[in-house]
C-alpha cells in the first residue's frame, strides 16, 4: 500500500511540474524578464597558435547567456586578449569577424605578440548583451549592470567600467539599468551613447493640451493622480467648438523621464456627458533622449457641445 501511495504521489508531483512548465512556456515568450550583462561575460577561448585569432570549427565561438545563444565576436564588441604574461594583456576591437562551418574568430591588430593567451569579452559582457538582445520584441529589453559586471569591468586592463559604459554601442531597443545604486539608474540610447535618465517614468503624467475641436478658450487638465500609464483628462469645452483634434497628451522626453517607445493607449469617455464619436492615434517626435510619445484624440463627425464638461479616461502600456 505504501509503495502504491508513493508512486501515486510521485506521479502527481511530475504532473504538477509538467503543468507548471507548460504554463510558463505559454506565458513567457522571452527567455527572461531581464538580462544581466555579466551573464554574457562567461565565455573564453583558449589560444591554439601564437598570434592566431581564427579558430577551427564554429562551435568554439558560440556561447549562451540566460538561454540566449550568441556569436561572441562582433566589430562593435572589444575583445580582451588575456595573455599568460599579464603585462601584455590588451583590449582590441575586431575589424572583421569570421563565422563559417570551417572556422570562426576575429581579425584584430594587437600591439603585443601573444603566444599563450585567452580571448574574452572586452566589455565584461555588456556589448555582447546589447548586440544579442537588439530588437527583441515591441518593447525595450532591460539589461542589468550588477556588482559582478562592475567588478569584472573595472579589472579589464587599460580601461574601467564607466568608460566601457560610455563607449557602448546601442540603440533604443535595449535599455540599461544599474542595480548597484540605491534607486536604480536607467540609461537610454541618445543616438551616440547611453545616457542616464529618470527611472520613474511611469509616475510622470503626460501634458494635456486642447485642440481646435475643444473650441475657443477651453479649460483642460489631468485629474489629480494621473500617471504615465493611467489617468483622466478633463475637458471643459469653450465656445465655437468644431471637429478635429479635441486634445493631445504628450509624455516627457526620454531625458526627462518619459518612455522610449510609442506603446498604445485605450481611451474611453466617462461621466455624465459621454462622448463616443472620437478616434485616437499614437505618434512620436524626436529621437534618442529627445524622443517623446503623443496621444491624439480627434472628433471626426460631430463637434462636442460648447461649454460642456467631458472626461476621458486613458490606460496606456
Structurally, how many domains make up the residues? 2
Q: What amount of the residues lies in strands?
A: 25-35%
- Low-pLDDT parts are 1-25
Major β-sheet profile: 5 strands, mixed
- Helix/strand/pairing class, anyone? alpha+beta
End-to-end C-alpha gap: 55 Å
> Average pLDDT across residues?
88
Principal-axes shape call: elongated
Count of helical regions: 4
What portion of residues is helical? 10-25%
Element-by-element helix/strand order? HEEEEEEEEEEHEHHEEEEEEEEEEE
Oligomeric assembly: single chain
Quick one: how many beta strands?
A: 22
Radius of gyration: 27 Å
Spatial strand order of the main sheet? 1-11-12-13-14
Describe the structure.
The chain is of the alpha+beta class. The chain has 2 domains: 35-197, no CATH class; 202-316. The protein contains 4 helices and 22 strands. The chain has a 5-stranded mixed β-sheet. The protein has a 4-stranded antiparallel β-sheet with strand order 2-10-6-7. Strand 4 and strand 5 form a beta hairpin. The longest helix is centred in the first third of the chain and has 26 residues, at 2-27. It starts with a helix and ends with a strand.
Briefly say what this structure is.
This protein is α+β, with helices and mostly antiparallel strands and 317 residues long.
Tag the structure with descriptive keywords.
317 residues, alpha+beta, 4 helices
